[in-house]
Amino acid sequence: MTKQTIPNDKPLMCKIIDKKEECFETLTFELQLPIKVQGAKPGQFIMLWIPGEDEYPVGIAGLKESILEVGIARMGPGTEAMHKKEIGDIVGIRGFYGKPFTPPDGVNHLLIGGGFGMTPLKLLIETLLASDEKQVIHVFEGARSKERLMYLEWLEELTEQGKITFHVCTDDGSYGYQGFPTVALEKFLQEVNTPSVIYAAGPEKMMKFIFGIGKKYPKVIDMQMSLADRYMRCGFGACANCAVDPTGWRICVDGPIFNTEQLEKISDFGVYKRLDTGEKKRI
Ligand SMILES: Cc1cc2nc3c(=O)[nH]c(=O)nc-3n(C[C@H](O)[C@H](O)[C@H](O)COP(=O)(O)OP(=O)(O)OC[C@H]3O[C@@H](n4cnc5c(N)ncnc54)[C@H](O)[C@@H]3O)c2cc1C
């Protein structure tokens, strides 16, 4: 079977072939696609359609042959509807959409995330590990408590195998050090002398804070951040509901991954987002 792109005129219907609890209120699903599709790039997303319920953007956590992995955090009615789905049920997908992360060779890759932001970072880790070059990968993950840490077991396995360095923390000290992942990130940046790239995905306030840290260190040659903590409607640039000021960039087609130069220009970054009504609200 040759690899195809997903047709964009209608959702591609897929069967749920695996469902498991990943961490608190977050489930991972494996979807069997009816065709073998061309590789998704880390940071890109799909529009997930739950017939009769809702359609919303979801990051790509993995793609092997024709099996797509997603991680869904319970937020409101749409994600709740997916949580109720069982193995054998059918959902639709559109995509793959958006600009991906673009990791260069020869740098320290510093991945920092929280919540469902860990899903694109999972595919980024897999992509880096599959590269011909030996990559230096540090993962910084934080959550309120141990049961909210996503991909904990997998990240610890990779650590034991010497493939990544994992800096883990919780707000309540129930796992890893007590505090925020930015503490370990900054400590690392103070000690390292080689060029680094920061990749971040999670709550926008956290990313804005990380951006401020990264700016202090000239050895951080780029920061690539996923502005996925925003309301998005169509996913392909038609409705402009996800446009940011003052550039007018639409997160779905011009992002969701933006680099340092672009993030500097987005005055909305970490300050305002739009509600589903289009109205701006302070973050
Ligand atoms: C590119 C992208 C990738 C994503 N990837 C994932 C993923 O991998 N996994 C995942 O679980 N989710 C992901 N999301 C988020 C997911 O699409 C939303 O959380 C979705 O709206 C959930 O629908 P819902 O009906 O469950 O919740 P909703 O009812 O739509 O929203 C849940 C809560 O969030 C609030 N809210 C929603 N949008 C905004 C906003 N713009 N500003 C302030 N508050 C808001 C609502 O008021 C409500 O309280 C992604 C979003 C984007 C843009």
Descriptive account of the structure:
With 283 residues, the protein is of the alpha/beta class. It has two domains: 12-96, Translation factors (Elongation Factor Tu (Ef-tu), domain 3, Beta Barrel); 108-282, 3-Layer(aba) Sandwich (Rossmann fold), CATH 3.40.50.80. The chain has seven helices and 16 strands. It has helices at 77-83, 118-129, 152-160, 181-191, 204-215, 251-254, 260-265; strands at 12-23, 26-32, 45-50, 54-59, 62-64, 67-73, 90-97, 108-113, 136-143, 165-170, 177-178, 196-201, 220-226, 257-258, 272-274, 280-282. Strand 1 (12-23) and strand 2 form a beta hairpin. The longest helix is centred in the middle third of the chain and has 12 residues, at 118-129. It is globular and about 50 Å long. The termini are far apart. Flavin-adenine dinucleotide is lined by residues 45, 54, 56-59, 70-73, 75-79, 116, 119, 228, 230-232, 256, 273-275, 281.
